[in-house]
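Protocol step 4 of 6: structure prediction from sequence.
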Amino acid sequence: MRQKRDVPLRSDAQRNRERILEVALVELTRAADAPLSAIAKKAGVGQGTFYRHFPSREALVMEIYRYEMQQVADTAAPLLECREPDRALREWLDRCAQFAMTKAGLADALRQATGAPGKPAKPAPTPLIEAAELLLRANEKAGTIRPGITADDLFLAVGGLWTIDPHTDWQPRADRLLNLVMDALRVGAPGP
């Protein structure tokens, strides 16, 4: 019987689930077709435990993607609490770049999980859009960016991150791109 998402897991079940996700992220990033039995074994759980949490490869891949996306999104508010809005936005964009580079290998697994007819759709990046909007509105209020920039605008501008080869020294290139985007956001800003 599948467990409902809104029912909290027991602590041991939660630890098992998190271990499976951690191992699966590494293994599926390395090889999109990594055997689920190998993932369960490396996570230290039995097949039954594995399939109670993730009844299919698609379910596992989708949850990894959702989980990792949520992790990045969840950093926006804490950054705003301890940084000036423009610094918080820039640091958050660095985390987006790191997400893009470290999850590039997972893209193959995601394409396999969502690419065929009848397969689930790739999850919408709603948490990232909400986080970006939070940061953009804080910057707009502070006068550090031009008014009216949307999360869609921002993601179109940083879309080049997903074309950088993660197997190269990607950090300097990502920094240049993000600095360019931040400079563009500041043009026309009213100031504090």
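Step 5 (inspection) to follow. The CA atoms of residues 161 and 174 lie 6 Å apart.
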